[in-house]
TrEMBL record:
It comes from the Eukaryota. It comes from Knipowitschia caucasica (Caucasian dwarf goby). Its main location: membrane. This is MARVEL domain-containing protein. Keywords: Membrane, Repeat, Transmembrane, Transmembrane helix. Residues 8-135 form the MARVEL domain. InterPro entries: Marvel, MYADM-like. Belongs to the MAL family. Pfam families: MARVEL. It is found in: Membrane.
Length: 145
């Protein structure tokens, strides 16, 4: 039986994921509403934003419906690995798109570039939230005796 888990959307990671979905949707919508360029870089950027949007929606749906517990995979590892992949893909798209396609007099392209950069930051925050463990620190302290 499927039960709805409202905590999936109200926890910090859930809120970040909802914002990721919104920003990636805004980004590819802004780019798609403009000139369609057959260039490989343009196609890569569109693929990146659409891929991140679709998988983030899928992750939110599976967590909200508690179906993620029925999958035969490590859900935490999957979501963290996807967030890491999305972070790197969005970093590339956030550099490639403004350098190659954004013009100073096009607010749509500038808005898409800004939303892409913000989506990159949100995915990086998600990686930090999912990999952080209570009581763990990556910084080792050395005692001066």
């Amino acid at each position: 039986m499927v039960t709805l888990d409202f905590k999936a959307c109200t926890l910090p990671v859930g809120i970040v994921r909802v914002l990721e979905v919104i920003l990636t949707c805004i980004t590819f919508s802004l780019v798609a509403s403009g000139y369609h360029n057959p260039d490989a870089f343009w196609i890569w950027c569109m693929f990146t934003w659409c891929f991140c949007f679709c998988l983030s929606v899928l992750i939110l749906f599976l967590e909200f419906s508690s179906l993620n517990s029925k999958l035969p995979i490590s859900w935490e590892d999957f979501t963290c690995a996807f967030a890491m992949l999305a972070t790197l893909m969005l970093l590339a798209a956030s550099i490639i798109y403004p350098v190659n396609f954004t013009k100073a007099n096009s607010p749509t392209q500038i808005g898409a570039s800004v939303c892409s950069c913000l989506a990159f930051l949100l995915y990086a925050i998600e990686v930090g939230l999912t990999r952080a463990r209570p009581g763990e620190s990556n910084i080792e302290r050395k005692d001066d005796d």
